[in-house]
Amino acid sequence: MIPDQTGQRLVEQLSTAIASDALPKDTRSWAERVLARLSLPVRVGILGQDNCNLSSLANALLGEDILPDGEGMPPMLVHHGTGDSITTVTATGSRHEIRPEQFGKLDPWSLAMAEFTAPLPILDHVSLLLVPLEGGKRELEGAINWAGQRCDMAIFCALPSDEQAREIWSQLPRPFLDHGFLCLLGEDFAIPSSRFNHPFRALFRVDRCAGDTAQVRKLTTALLDHVASARREDLEGALLLLERYCPPDRKDRPRALEPQQEVQAQPDLSALLESPPLADAERLGPAETSAPTAEIISFLAAQAD
After folding, report:
1. Cα–Cα distance list, 67 to 19, 79, 137, 196 (Å)
2. What are the 10-residue block averages of pLDDT along the chain, 305 residues in total?
3. 20 to 30 A Cα–Cα from 9, which one of 99, 109, 152, 238?
């Protein structure tokens, strides 16, 4: 078991090392990404076309009906919080905090994004970003690139008979495939799973309304297992980095993880990706909480037109 105190001490020491001159420039860039992954919940993107009912799957994973469903919904982010308010972002980038009962009165087509909070334990470890994929080639590329900059892994949703989905997932960034899952939503499961050749980690078949609790549970378990494994790799990588570049007389440095140690029963789900190539470090920056960039604003404006 990895104590929380050990992980917190490791984060503090890694932060101190980054702020000092102990790390080479290239190593510091990698260390900053590891620090972000250890400090923040993992960012999970749920991508798919509007007919895939993304909100239904997200609510099934959360265990509560947090996110609304309906035509024209913008990208929606849900993370841990009190759940007393919703933050909306307009196409001009302005942010407004409203009460949940007010959201249903808004025109979703006028929004660039909506941010929800909920006091759910799972959101201590993950945040969910729903990204509807619609429009032409240019709009799809814009949405995928935007999601790729804000998510560490993905759940790609598609209907079993949707051939266009194959064309879309061929455009996904490599991390979304190596650290992603394909979720086939639909009631017609006559087509065997073996027919679907896909590049994702695993395939799950869930009722279109996400009412298949057994399959949702399997998907959740696979997601958390993968995250816990990757977090351990980040912890070990950070320990090796500190051993190499920090003074050896630091008595408060966490000890190397023993093979028999287990990941805590409810893992701190804050890391997924393996050490990224240095060329990707800038593209895959830390999670953003500011207003959407000009890229997504242009993308959504094109959709509105």
Report:
1. 39, 11, 27, 29
2. 63 84 80 82 90 89 90 92 89 90 89 94 90 89 92 90 82 89 75 73 79 83 86 83 70 46 42 40 41 52 53
3. 152
Q: Which two tokens stand for residue 131?
A: 């990204």
C-alpha–C-alpha distance, residues 101 and 99, integer Å:
6
Report the alpha-carbon distance of residue 69 to residue 53 in Å, rounded: 7
DSSP string, 135-156: SSHHHHHHHHHHHHTT-SEEEE
Q: Give residues with Cβ within 8 angstroms of 65, minimum separation 6.
A: 59
Burial (CB count <10 Å: 0-12, 13-18, 19+), residue 216: buried
User: Mapped to the 3 state alphabet, what secondary structure does 169-225 carry?
Assistant: HCCCCHHHHHCEEEEEECCCCCCCHHHCCCCCCEEEEECCCCCCHHHHHHHHHHHHH
CA angle, 219 then 177 then 270, to 5°: 65
Beta strands in the chain (DSSP E): 42-48, 76-80, 86-90, 95-98, 111-118, 126-132, 153-158, 180-185, 202-206
Residue 277, classed as helix, strand or coil, is coil
What does the alpha-carbon distance between residue 282 and residue 30 come to, in Å, rounded to a whole number? 10
Nearest by Cα to 1 from 252, 269, 272, 260: 260
Phi, psi of 51 (to 5 degrees): -75, 0
Question: Which residue is associated with the tokens 């298949």?
Answer: 212
pLDDT score, position 61: 92
- For residues 19 and 58, what is the distance between their CA atoms, to the nearest angstrom? 38
Ramachandran region, residue 14 (left: φ > 0; alpha: ψ -120 to 50; beta: rest): alpha
